[in-house]
C-alpha cells in the first residue's frame, strides 16, 4: 500500500513538472543576403588625368595684330631718321604715352640717310624713320653688323612746293620741267625760266643731302631733266640754302618774296598761314589727288626695324604693332595721307613674320 502511494506521488510530480516547462524558442532561418550586381565602370567613370587648360590666344585687332596695352610695355625705344616722318612718329609716340606707356621714346630728326647710318652702321637705334626706301648699300651695311632691315609702310607724303605769300606769278603753279630749271645752276633769275616772271634772283631753299626728301626731289624732279645729273646741277646753283631742319626752310621762304622751297606736306599744313603751296603740273596736293595717283610728287613713308631687335626688345615690337594699328587715326591731323590698304597689309604681314 505504501509502495503504491510512492508511485502515485512520483507520477503526479512528473505531470506537474511537464505542465510548467516552456518549449525552447525555435530559431527562424534568416534569408541569406542577396549579392547586388556591381556595374562595370564606364569610360567616363574611369579616373583619367586632367589636361592642363590651353593657353589663351592673345586678342587681335581688325588688322590681325595682337592688341597692345601700353600700360604693360616696359623698356626704352630709340629711333632716328627722316625729318618728314618725324612729326608722324612724334604723334604716335605721344598717343602711346597717353595710353599708359611709361618708358622713354627718343626720336631724332636727322634725315633718312643719317638715320640709316645710325641703324645700319653704328647700331645705335631700334627703328629707322625714312621718307625713301632703303638703298642696297645700306642693306649691306646692316648685314655687316648682323641686322636685316624690315620695311613697314606707314603712310604717304605729298611733297609740297612752297613760295612766299607775296608771290603772285605762280598762282597757276609750275610744271616739273620749270621746277627743275628753278633749281638749276643755269638759272639765276625767275625770268630765266619764264619771261613773264620777275627779273629777280631765285632764292632756293632745300633739305640737306642726308634728307630722304632731298633724294626724292633729285629722283623725281632733277634727274629726269638733267640726264641723271640732278644732284650735281642742284648743288651748283647759286642762292641755295640747305638744311636738315625743315623749320629753317619755312622761315627762309617766309622771309623772302623771291624764295621757293620744298618739304613734306605736314610742314606746309603746320605753316599754311605763312606760305602758299603751288600746284605741280596742274595738280594740287590733297587726299583725292594722292589717292588717285595724280599728284606727281607723292611718295611713301616708312619705318624700319629688325627681327632680332624686336625679339630682344619686346617694347620695340609692341610700339611698331601699335604704330601700324593706330597710324590712320592720326595721320590726317599730322598732314599726311594713309598708305594704300594693300601696303599697310604688307606691313602687318612683315610684323607677323618677324615675330614668329
Number of domain units: 2
Q: How would you name the CATH homologous superfamily of the largest domain?
A: Periplasmic binding protein-like II
Number of helices: 13
Tell me how many strands there are.
10
| CATH top level label of the largest domain | Alpha Beta
Low-pLDDT segments: 5-12, 14-29, 31-35, 41-47
Q: Under CATH, the topology of the largest domain is which? A: D-Maltodextrin-Binding Protein, domain 2
If you average the pLDDT, what whole number results?
Answer: 88
Report the major sheet: 5 strands, mixed
Shape, per Cα inertia axes: elongated
Describe this structure in words.
The chain is α/β, with parallel strands linked by helices. It has two domains: 70-157 and 300-354, D-Maltodextrin-Binding Protein, domain 2, CATH 3.40.190.10; 160-284, Periplasmic binding protein-like II (D-Maltodextrin-Binding Protein, domain 2, 3-Layer(aba) Sandwich). The protein has helices at 2-20, 86-98, 112-122, 136-144, 176-182, 212-225, 230-235, 246-254, 265-270, 287-291, 307-312, 314-334, 341-354, and strands at residues 77-81, 105-109, 127-130, 149-158, 160-163, 203-207, 240-243, 259-263, 276-277, 298-306. A five-stranded mixed β-sheet has the order 2-1-3-10-4, with helices on both faces. Helix 3 packs parallel to helix 4. It starts with a helix and ends with a helix. 39% of the residues are buried.
Amino acid at each position: 500500500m505504501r509502495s503504491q502511494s510512492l508511485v502515485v506521488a512520483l507520477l503526479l510530480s512528473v505531470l506537474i513538472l511537464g505542465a510548467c516547462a516552456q518549449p525552447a524558442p525555435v530559431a527562424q532561418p534568416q534569408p541569406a543576403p542577396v549579392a547586388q550586381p556591381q556595374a562595370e565602370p564606364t569610360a567616363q567613370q574611369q579616373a583619367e588625368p586632367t589636361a592642363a587648360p590651353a593657353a589663351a590666344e592673345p586678342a587681335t585687332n581688325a588688322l590681325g595684330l595682337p592688341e597692345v596695352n601700353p600700360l604693360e610695355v616696359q623698356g626704352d625705344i630709340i629711333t632716328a631718321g627722316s625729318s618728314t616722318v618725324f612729326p608722324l612718329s612724334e604723334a604716335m609716340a605721344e598717343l602711346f604715352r597717353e595710353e599708359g606707356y611709361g618708358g622713354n621714346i627718343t626720336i631724332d630728326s636727322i634725315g633718312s640717310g643719317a638715320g640709316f647710318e645710325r641703324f645700319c652702321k653704328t647700331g645705335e637705334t631700334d627703328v629707322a624713320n625714312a621718307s625713301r626706301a632703303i638703298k642696297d648699300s645700306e642693306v649691306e651695311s646692316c648685314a655687316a653688323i648682323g641686322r636685316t632691315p624690315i620695311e613697314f609702310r606707314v603712310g604717304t607724303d605729298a611733297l609740297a612746293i612752297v613760295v612766299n605769300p607775296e608771290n603772285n606769278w605762280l598762282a597757276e603753279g609750275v610744271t616739273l620741267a620749270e621746277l627743275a630749271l628753278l633749281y638749276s645752276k643755269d638759272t639765276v633769275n625767275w625770268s630765266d625760266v619764264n619771261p613773264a616772271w620777275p627779273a629777280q634772283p631765285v632764292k632756293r631753299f632745300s633739305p640737306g643731302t642726308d634728307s630722304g626728301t632731298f633724294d626724292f626731289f633729285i629722283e623725281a624732279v632733277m634727274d629726269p631733266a638733267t640726264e641723271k645729273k640732278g644732284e650735281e646741277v642742284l648743288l651748283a646753283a647759286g642762292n641755295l640754302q640747305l638744311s636738315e631742319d625743315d623749320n629753317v626752310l619755312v622761315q627762309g621762304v617766309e622771309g623772302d618774296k623771291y624764295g621757293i622751297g620744298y618739304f613734306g606736306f605736314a610742314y606746309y599744313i603746320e605753316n599754311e598761314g605763312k606760305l602758299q603751296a603751288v600746284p605741280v603740273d596742274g595738280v594740287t596736293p590733297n587726299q583725292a589727288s594722292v589717292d588717285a595717283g595724280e599728284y606727281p610728287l607723292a611718295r611713301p613713308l616708312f619705318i624700319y626695324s629688325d627681327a632680332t631687335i624686336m625679339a630682344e626688345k619686346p617694347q620695340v615690337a609692341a610700339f611698331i604693332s601699335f604704330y601700324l594699328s593706330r597710324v590712320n587715326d592720326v595721320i590726317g591731323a599730322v598732314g599726311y595721307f594713309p598708305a594704300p590698304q594693300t601696303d599697310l597689309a604688307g606691313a602687318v604681314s612683315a610684323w607677323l613674320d618677324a615675330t614668329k
